[in-house]
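Listing S7. Sequence submitted for prediction.
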Amino acid sequence: MKRLRTMHRTMIATTALAALALSGAAVTTAGAVVPEKPEKPEKKSSSKGFTTTVVDFGAYTSEVEVENPAEPEDRDPTVDATNNTLAVSPDERLAVATNSYSDHLVVIDVRSGRKIAEIKGYVSPRNILFAPDSRSFTVSDSARGVVDRISVFGFRVTRRFPLGAGVFGTAQSRDGKWLYANNAAADTVTVVDLARNRPTDVITGFHEPRQGTALSYSGETLYVTNYGKGEVSVVDLTSKDRTMRQIGGFHGLRAVSVNRAGDRLYAANSETAEISVVDTASGETITTVPVGEKPYGAALSPDGSVLLSGDMKSNTLTAVNTADNSVIGTVKSGPKGALKGPRQAIGFSADSKTAWVLNDDLTVAEVDVEHLKVTDILGD
C-alpha cells in the first residue's frame, strides 16, 4: 500500500497542475425536489426520502471502484486515513454529512430531524462546506480526485473541479469566492477561484495535509495541518510567493481552529489527549488542555467562547472555556440519544447555543452547549 502511494505522487501532482487550465465538467444526477420543511413539525417521520446518484465523474477522475473493503482505509488507494465531515447550512435548515468509508452523502432536515435524501456515487468523500447563501455545498472525494459543487435544489452536481487523487480537507473564504483544497497524497494545497469556477494556483511544501485546514477570519492566512510531521503550516496568502512558516510540537495532529482575532490557534492532539492553545504570532504553545481519549475535533463556537473537542475513543465531547482555557464539562450520551465516535465533524448554530455532532452511523447528535446535554438525534 505504501509503495503504491509513493508511485502515485508524481502522477497526482501532474494531474493537479494540469487541472489549473480546466474548469470542472457538469455532472448529471437523478432529478428530485427538496421537500418543504414544516415550520413546527409535530412528529418526526422515519421516511428515508429519495436517493439520487452521481452517474458521470468527468475529466481527470480516477477509475476507482471498491466493494466491501476489509478495512475502511482500503477504500482509498492513495490515503490510508479515515475521517468524517458534517456541514450545516448557514440558514440552519439542512445538514449534509458523510464519512470516508461511505459511498454516499446523507441530507437531513434540521428542523424536523428527518433524513430527506442520500446522494450516492462517491468512494472516499472527505469534506463538506456550504456556500454562504445556503444554496449549494462542496464535497471532496480523495479517491475520485474531485471536488463537486452540489445544488440543494434537487441535489444536482452543478460543477466538478478535478484536483487530483488525494484531495482531502477544504477551507472556504467567508464570501464564498475562494476554496483551498488539501491534497494528502501530493503534499499540496490547490487554490480554486469559485467565482470563475477554476483552479488558479497550487501551493507546495506540505507533509500529508489531511482534513485539518482553517482560514483566518480576514481571509489572509491559511493554517494547514501536516499530519506527517506534527506541524501546522501558516501560509501568508497576501504575499506573492505564499510565504510559509511552521508551528510544531503537536502529537497526532487532527484538527485546528483559529479565533476571529487570529491570535489563538487550537489544535487536537489525538496521541496525548490534549488540546494545544497556541499564540499564532510567536508559534509558542501557551498551554495544553486535557480532554477525552483520542481527540479528533477542535471546533470553536462562532462567538469564540467555547471550544468542543470530539473525543472519539471516549464517545464524549469536552467543552473548553477559551477565556481561561479551563474545562467546563463533558457531554456524554443521555436519555435523548447517544454520541457514537465523535470526530472532527462538529458544527455550531450562529448564536453558539447549539452544536451538531456527527455519529459513526451518520446520525447527528444535537447538543445544548450551555447545559452540555444531547437533546436529540437527527436522521435516525
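Caption to Listing S7: primary sequence and predicted C-alpha cells for the chain studied. Confidence is low (pLDDT under 50) at residues 1-48, 57-61. The two ends are 36 Å apart (CA to CA).
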